[in-house]
């Protein structure tokens, strides 16, 4: 059964990514400024990026078709299939974030740089409401990611994160 | 321009199409002060005209109007659906004004509706069709020279769009899908499956656009042009787009684009233009290279395709005989029938998968069953089967309505089984085959019955072929069934069937032949031997396809059987003498007798939704009181599931499967309880709170609680506190269940508690969700907290008692 859903999900997932590199223009204990015009208020981010000259932000999404299908299944009371598809979506979204992370790391390595761990809005003291400015800065709207008034990304199976880029020690 | 003019023009010269509209609008900043690109047609037409003009200057001979997303579903995103006619017509009109100065053609543009058709998506085939038809009508009234259906990713949507064009526009229609580098669309349709649909629905040209860059698309373009005699269009992107620093970057150059286009031209492609990222500069390079040329000659493979979403089957290339699996047919299968009547498709899915595993190329679907809604069954069965297998389908019904439902639901080109020589039948079924582009099986029988000899059967076949021609159904779309009779009763008739196949293949080499094989052995022992031997004889005579049980052994060829089939063994005496003693199937060894009660308990614990209803009925018929069945078997089973879940032996999917099995059981038991004492835990209003659109967790809770006897009123997601409390009041619900998945939205739970307190109702509130804790629940004044669905069931029971 799970295999069937994986086959189906292959057809209805349309993965997309958006990546933005930027110089860190200003660095304070509680705020990091990225060009052009993004301020992230978070001590954790500030620490994470403390040795970094630049950072890379990205967002990935699996598109709307998967979620539309899950909604249909739920409406048909086909809860198990919806659950399995939902779980597949979560795994794929995480994999996609991993893949993007790896690409950023590889790019950095080519320039003799290393990357930090990745960090997403809503973790630690980077409040979820920071998602709004972050996604706008990324231009995530271009791959169809929207934000609800309560800062939830739509499609649900979307991930955004920031990675710091620094010189090898 | 009509279809014939289009065809003849393209046989003389190729046409240069324009380049990208969307990316060009974006690049020039024309979209900065507007939401929908199509709104420009009525708000700032001069911007669109400017781009058309630049492409015409660069050498384009066809401009494609800015109507790609001008369908009511897409326009509704910008609240522009009421302007659909205006937007489409202005799009054509403004393009015409510019193009007329260059003596160029104007095309209307049709893109996807934005939702996939079921089962991949949420809309029905008819909804998609209606949406396309509305746009096509608006476009047609403005008289474009041709229509492009572009950037399609889903084959059912292609069918809906082509039908909408066919019904509402007289001019030529070009249909293009968008392929990924592996040669299929994101929904899995490959180039040839697409071609089979486009040709069968009489598209005037086929092609591809967008997605991969020119070089990768070239290979796919060659594949297309070497398999069709239709004009082929080719509109690659300027390379694969990358989104870097908020800018879409297309890495390709005009030179690369022109090189790939030239190679495409050399393979016989005759409509060339560009998609995303291409600019007037690209079109200029293309035009300098190719404009005015005569199309290059093509080498075309002859084929006869039927298809599914992901596979095209070329009946000409497939040798030996093509096997059509006959097992999706409930005749004489009581359990299968009961399942279908209960709306259970598990056997259908299983039969589909197993037949394909046993070598079936095509699956026959016959759902004729007394008391059933065959039309609804056919639609659902087609969707279910196409979710699990890639084999093309053969829709088998005598009801035109059921056939049409199946044709609409089918992703791909199916076979219709069948018409016969009766005028009434042909009048009814042939228009369907023509409209939906299906292949058609014709039985060599009419109202006078089965003709005795081969020559007379050919006369009926001739009548069918002639009648089909009137609808534009070609000889190669027809498959004649010369009918298998039982060798036991009509041995001499076998020769006539084989002879009819031979004569038919000689007379109409393009017309295919098919036989339902198994009937030949009716009433004789060891049927497999006869069936297989018969098939071999028919193959030698030229049989193309056979409807059979693919699980049987089709390699057998037996001398005695052959003797019988050739009429040299009167009454089959020699055959029967040898085989009548052959052992029948050995009965399975009997194990310990398990009582129906135990079986039902097991079925609930295992979540066996297929067996549960029958077991409940059996248990009840043995005299167990319904309430006892509910409490002592079903709820006990569910409790065991809860324990397994707590011990991590079970995970969520198993819990839900059990819950669904239990719900089926309660569905049978509940009506019996109404008279003799109630069994209901009470009513519960369930919702995901305002601001939160997470749904899945709440639905799992609903499924599990329903299985514990709760009547669930599910208000869905993003629900206002007031609405939840109001519903609890009007429904007199004992419980409110709230779900929230985010730290920002869980605060809304407190609002619900406050609203409950303010309203004075006594309904208890329980809460749950990823960020919610016991402590939080206490703080906001909720009456309980559950960490998962199984706990929620326990908690609900506890709180209400």
Describe this structure in words.
The complex is a heterodimer of chains A (169) and B (801). Chain A is an alpha+beta fold and 169 residues long. Chain A has a single domain, classed as 3-Layer(aba) Sandwich (NADH Oxidase), CATH 3.40.109.40. Helix content of chain A is 41%, strand content 29%. Chain A has helices spanning 2-12, 43-48, 64-75, 79-110, 131-138, and strands at residues 16-27, 31-34, 38-41, 54-61, 113-119, 146-147, 153-154, 158-167. In chain A, strands 3-2-1-4-8-5 form a 6-stranded antiparallel sheet, sandwiched between helices. In chain A, strand 1 (16-27) and strand 2 form a beta hairpin. In chain A, helix 3 runs antiparallel to helix 4. The longest helix of chain A is centred in the middle third of the chain and has 32 residues, at 79-110. Chain A starts with a helix and ends with a strand. Chain B has 801 residues and is an alpha/beta fold. Chain B folds into 3 domains: 3-210, TIM Barrel (Alpha-Beta Barrel), CATH 3.20.20; 305-579, TIM Barrel; 596-800, 3-Layer(aba) Sandwich (Rossmann fold), CATH 3.40.50. Chain B has 31 helices and 25 strands. In chain B, the strands form 5 sheets. Chain B has an 8-stranded parallel sheet with strand order 1-10-7-6-5-4-3-2. An 8-stranded parallel β-barrel of chain B has the order 13-14-15-16-17-18-19-20, surrounded by 6 helices. In chain B, helix 10 packs parallel to helix 11. Chain B is flat. Classes of the chains: A alpha+beta (169), B alpha/beta (801).
């Amino acid at each position: 059964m799970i295999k069937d859903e994986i086959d189906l999900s292959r057809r209805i997932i349309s993965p997309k990514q958006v990546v933005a590199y930027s110089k860190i223009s200003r660095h304070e204990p509680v705020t990091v400024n990225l060009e052009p015009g993004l301020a992230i208020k978070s001590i954790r981010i500030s620490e994470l990026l403390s040795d970094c000259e630049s950072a890379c932000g990205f967002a990935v999404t699996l598109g709307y078709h998967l979620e539309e299908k899950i909604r249909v299944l739920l409406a048909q009371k086909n809860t198990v299939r919806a659950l399995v598809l939902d779980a597949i979506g979560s795994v794929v979204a995480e994999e996609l974030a991993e893949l993007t992370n790896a690409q950023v790391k590889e790019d950095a390595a080519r320039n003799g740089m290393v990357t930090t761990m990745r960090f997403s809005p809503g973790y630690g003291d980077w409040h979820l409401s920071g998602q709004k400015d972050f996604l706008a800065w990324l231009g995530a709207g271009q791959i169809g990611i929207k934000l609800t008034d309560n800062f939830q990304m739509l499609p649900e199976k979307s991930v955004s994160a920031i990675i710091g880029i620094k010189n090898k020690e | 321009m009509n279809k014939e003019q289009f065809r003849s023009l393209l046989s003389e010269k190729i046409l240069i199409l324009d380049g990208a509209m969307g990316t060009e609008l974006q690049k020039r900043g024309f979209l900065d002060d507007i939401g929908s690109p199509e709104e420009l047609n009525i708000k700032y037409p001069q911007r669109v005209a400017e781009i058309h003009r630049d492409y015409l200057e660069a050498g384009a001979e066809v401009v494609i109007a800015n109507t790609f997303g001008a369908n009511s579903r897409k326009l509704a995103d910008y609240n522009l659906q009421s302007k659909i006619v205006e937007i489409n017509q202005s799009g054509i009109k403004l393009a015409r004004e510019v193009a007329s100065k260059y003596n160029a053609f104007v095309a209307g543009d049709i893109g996807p509706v934005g939702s996939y058709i079921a089962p991949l998506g949420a809309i029905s085939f008819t909804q998609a069709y209606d949406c396309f038809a509305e746009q096509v009508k608006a476009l047609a009234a403005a008289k474009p020279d041709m229509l492009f259906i572009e950037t399609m990713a889903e084959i059912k949507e292609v069918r809906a769009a082509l039908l909408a064009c066919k019904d509402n526009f007289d001019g030529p229609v070009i249909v293009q899908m968008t392929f990924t580098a592996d040669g299929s669309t994101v929904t899995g349709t490959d180039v040839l499956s697409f071609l089979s649909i486009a040709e069968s629905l009489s598209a005037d040209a086929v092609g591809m656009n967008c997605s991969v860059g020119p070089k990768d698309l070239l290979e796919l373009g060659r594949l297309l042009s070497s398999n069709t005699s239709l004009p082929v269009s080719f509109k690659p992107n300027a390379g694969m787009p990358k989104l870097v620093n908020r800018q879409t970057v297309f890495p390709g150059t005009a030179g690369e684009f022109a090189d790939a286009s030239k190679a495409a031209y050399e393979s016989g492609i005759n409509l060339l233009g560009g998609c995303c990222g291409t600019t007037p500069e690209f079109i200029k390079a293309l035009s300098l290279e190719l404009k005015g040329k005569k199309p290059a000659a093509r080498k075309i493979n002859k084929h006869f395709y039927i298809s599914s979403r992901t596979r095209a089957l070329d009946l000409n290339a497939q040798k030996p005989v093509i096997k059509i699996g006959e097992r999706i047919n409930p005749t004489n299968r009581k359990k299968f029938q009961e399942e279908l009547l209960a709306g259970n498709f598990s056997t259908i899915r299983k039969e589909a998968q197993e037949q394909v595993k046993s070598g079936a190329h095509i699956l026959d679907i016959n759902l004729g069953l007394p008391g059933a809604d065959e039309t609804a069954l056919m639609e659902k069965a087609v969707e279910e089967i196409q979710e699990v297998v890639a084999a093309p389908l053969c829709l088998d019904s005598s009801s035109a309505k059921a056939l049409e439902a199946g044709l609409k639901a089918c992703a791909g080109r199916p076979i219709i089984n069948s018409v016969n020589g009766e005028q009434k039948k042909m009048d009814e079924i042939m228009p369907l085959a023509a409209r939906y582009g299906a292949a058609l099986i014709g039985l060599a029988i009419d109202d006078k019955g089965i003709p005795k000899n081969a020559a007379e059967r050919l006369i009926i076949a001739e009548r069918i072929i002639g009648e089909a021609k009137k609808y534009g159904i070609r000889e190669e779309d027809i498959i004649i069934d010369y009918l298998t009779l039982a060798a036991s009763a009509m041995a001499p008739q076998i020769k006539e069937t084989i002879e009819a196949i031979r004569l038919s293949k000689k007379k109409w080499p393009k017309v295919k032949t098919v036989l339902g094989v198994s009937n030949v052995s009716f009433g004789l022992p060891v049927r497999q031997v006869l069936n297989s031997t018969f098939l071999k004889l028919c193959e030698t005579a030229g049989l193309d396809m056979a409807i059979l049980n693919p699980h049987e052994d089709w390699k057998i060829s037996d001398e005695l059987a052959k003797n019988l089939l050739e009429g040299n063994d009167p009454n089959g005496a020699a055959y029967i003498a040898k085989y009548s003693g052959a052992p029948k199937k050995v009965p399975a060894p009997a194990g310990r007798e398990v009582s129906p009660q135990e079986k039902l308990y097991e079925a609930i614990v295992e979540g066996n939704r297929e067996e549960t209803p029958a077991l409940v009925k059996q248990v009840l018929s043995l005299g167990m009181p319904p309430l006892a069945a509910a409490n002592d078997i079903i709820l006990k089973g569910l409790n065991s599931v809860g324990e397994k879940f707590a011990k991590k032996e079970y995970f969520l999917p198993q819990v839900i499967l059990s819950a669904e099995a239990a719900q089926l059981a309660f569905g049978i038991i509940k009506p019996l309880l109404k008279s003799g004492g109630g069994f209901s835990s009470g009513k519960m209003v369930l919702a995901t709170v305002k601001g939160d659109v997470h749904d899945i967790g709440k639905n799992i809770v609903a499924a599990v609680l329903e299985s514990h006897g709760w009547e669930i009123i599910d208000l869905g997601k993003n629900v206002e506190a007031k609405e939840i409390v109001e519903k609890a009041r009007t429904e007199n619900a004992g419980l409110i269940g709230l779900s929230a998945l985010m730290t920002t939205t869980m605060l809304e739970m407190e609002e619900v508690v406050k609203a409950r307190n303010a309203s004075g109702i006594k309904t208890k509130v329980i809460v749950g969700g990823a960020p919610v804790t016991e402590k939080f629940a206490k703080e906001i004044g909720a009456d309980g907290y559950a960490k998962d669905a199984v706990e929620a069931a326990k908690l609900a029971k506890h709180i209400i008692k």
